[in-house]
Amino acid sequence: MSFRRDRLTKPIFSWARGVLPAMSDTEREALEAGDVWWDADLFTGNPDWSKLLKTPQATLTAEERAFLNGPVDELCAMLDEWKIFWEWRDLPQDAWTFIKREKFFGMIIPKQFGGLGFSPYAHSEVVRKISTRSIAAAVTVMVPNSLGPGELLMRFGTKEQQERWLPRLADGRDIPCFGLTSPEAGSDAASMVDSGIICKGVFEGREVTGLRLNWHKRYITLGPVATLLGLAFKAYDPDHLVGDQEELGITVALIPTHLPGVEIGHRHLPSMQVFQNGPNRGRDVFIPLDYVIGGQERLGQGWKMLMTALAAGRGISLPSLSAAGAAYAARTTGAYARIREQFGISISRFEGVQEPLARIVATAYQLDAARRLTCAALNAGIHPAVISGIMKLHATERMRIAIDDAMDIHGGKAVIDGPQNYIGNLHRAVPVGITVEGANILTRNLIIFGQGAIRAHPYLLDEMNALADTDRERGLTAFDNAFWKHVRHSFQTLFRAFGRSWTFGAFALAPDAGDATPFYRQLSRYSAAFALCADLALLTLGGALKRKEMLSARFGDILSELYLLSAALKRWQDEGRQKEDFAALEWCMATGFKTIEARFAEILANLPNRFVAAILKLVVQPFGARVLGPSDRVVHRCASLVLEPSAARERLTPDLAHVDDDSGFARLERAFKLVAATDAIAKRVRAAHVQDWKDAVTKGVITQAEGEQLASAHAAVTEVIEVDDFAPEALSPIYKKIGDVHQFFQELGEQRAAS
């Protein structure tokens, strides 16, 4: 062993230490935050499918289900999205009062502090349901339960801080927000200039050691109405009042917004969404050191604290909203396509409509599968950082595609705004999800594979830690141990990838999963190919790989597809292998496999070391990218899942906010049910070639009762396809001043003619 270490490993160790790129503190803390889970299995190249399938499903307790069917439904009934964003520009006051009283802000806070003590899955389900009624309300509820003072206090707060602040957050006496993003620093938090200088000062009539803060934050959700601001800033100790260091690093603290120097209240208008969001400033705001979350010993540890909290929050809030958006799009678009006729037939029969409709349906199936699987990990106490990044990126991106498809199928119905437009505001909200909690461009190009390659790889992090060890001998020994395990792993992966690629995965490991068994084999094949290509890319590029963002993004796409497809398989298994849902699973698999093979081809075409690229092509893609995507048959069957009332449709779109009112969504649901119920009657009328239902009754084709049913269905459809229009003075204050607009323009024309 010592011969290997001293003769073989030592030169490699010395070389690697010389080329290992420097890592900033913020990069290291981001890498170390959170946990690895199923992503680590995928990185091995030989995933243990039994581990995935044995993962307990995320479920609700009786108390959580009662909350979903009680207070959540009550809140949804209070909300009118058109009035919220067009008239009020805010939630109604009774909704704010209800949200506080029913402890929506305290869902994740333990019961011992007055919260509801709900699981991550319950949090997700609540956000998901509210999202289908009001985006503004969903964002209002989800933010305090995600990244913010509550989460940070629960994880890192002192006992005194928890006992003081958590009960106030739970019952709504305090409304929280968190200030991270500043004009100088968006994704690059290390560049923030917001500062806190440790000094002596007077607080509540006594002299204490504290922080004098100056900051400027923006894009802060709930910021305009917050009473308790969680703040990220850089702490400095120029007079060495707490230690020898002068620059302490990023720190997080609690700032009651009534303190002198806090400027808060102005609002942003993000993509015309009216959830409370805005900038805030602090000028020479003084707080005692015990307002630092976790107390004095947590000075400078803020970035790691934030990244750890974000590892959970990114996997819940926006993925829940996105899964809701896709399910809502599937239900409404399927219903609208079914009832809307053009050229004498339902537009759902046009293949040009079926293709995007199938994409919406399968996206809804996959996103909810991934949401549930991620929540299962979170329920088990795992905080999967890489998977949370995958979820945030791909959930919001795929929601964008689903909503765009829904807009295309609805046509003018979704374009014309008004109380009866049930999808337009969701379309406007999409860019917000794409941008917040880490811009998707950054997440795709730098984070998923960059963080995943180090954290989820079986040996890479151990090797990097050994190389960075200040004790050279200890580092050499640790590196020797990890490096040769890595070499053995790489050779095993090489042979595994070669065998599975050349046999098209025919003998790859897979559980007995009925019709889905071949899909597991292909994922095992792609996992081995991914592990091998990642290893050789890291070997040949080293630290330069993080500057090859397009390559990193392609690797990240493959890892993401492996996770999302795993989730879809897990869902199909957990739901009892529903035969009707298999078309959605087939669509997901065919599309995912197509993406994976395309990304492999792009990696091999662009890998700088052409010799290694040629070897890899021979091993992992000898026959090129061959998967073409879902067949027309699969597209047709997938689209049909939402075109008739069925158990499959309900499984695909469960627990949406159904309010029996006069909203556009409620009208659509009623029309859909009536059209489906009268389908056989309508077919008899068409077959008889009669003018209308009354003529059909006269000629004995249908009964009077059947004719009236048909008339009710036609009336309901007419109500749905109508779009809103407004008197000019209802849209512009200009016209309120000039009275009759038509008369105004007529007189203006007469004046011009006379002149």
UniProtKB/TrEMBL annotation:
Q: Name one GO molecular function term.
A: medium-chain fatty acyl-CoA dehydrogenase activity
Domain (Acyl-CoA dehydrogenase/oxidase N-terminal): give its ranges.
79-172
Could you confirm whether the keyword Flavoprotein appears in this record? yes
Indicate the segments forming the Acyl-CoA dehydrogenase/oxidase C-terminal domain, all copies: 300-447
Report the pathway entry: Lipid metabolism; fatty acid beta-oxidation
Protein keywords: FAD, Flavoprotein, Oxidoreductase
Co-factor(s): FAD
Write out the GO biological process terms: fatty acid beta-oxidation using acyl-CoA dehydrogenase
For this record, an example GO cellular component is: cytoplasm
- Taxonomic superkingdom: Bacteria
Q: Any idea where the Acyl-CoA dehydrogenase C-terminal bacterial-type domain is?
A: 454-726
- This entry's Enzyme Commission designation comes to 1.3.8.7, 1.3.8.8
Q: What class does this enzyme belong to in the EC scheme?
A: oxidoreductase
Provide the catalytic activity annotation: a long-chain 2,3-saturated fatty acyl-CoA + oxidized [electron-transfer flavoprotein] + H(+) = a long-chain (2E)-enoyl-CoA + reduced [electron-transfer flavoprotein]; a medium-chain 2,3-saturated fatty acyl-CoA + oxidized [electron-transfer flavoprotein] + H(+) = a medium-chain (2E)-enoyl-CoA + reduced [electron-transfer flavoprotein]
Q: Which family does it belong to?
A: Belongs to the acyl-CoA dehydrogenase family.
The protein depicted here goes by the name Acyl-coenzyme A dehydrogenase
Per UniProt, what is the name of the gene that codes for the protein in this document?
Answer: fadE
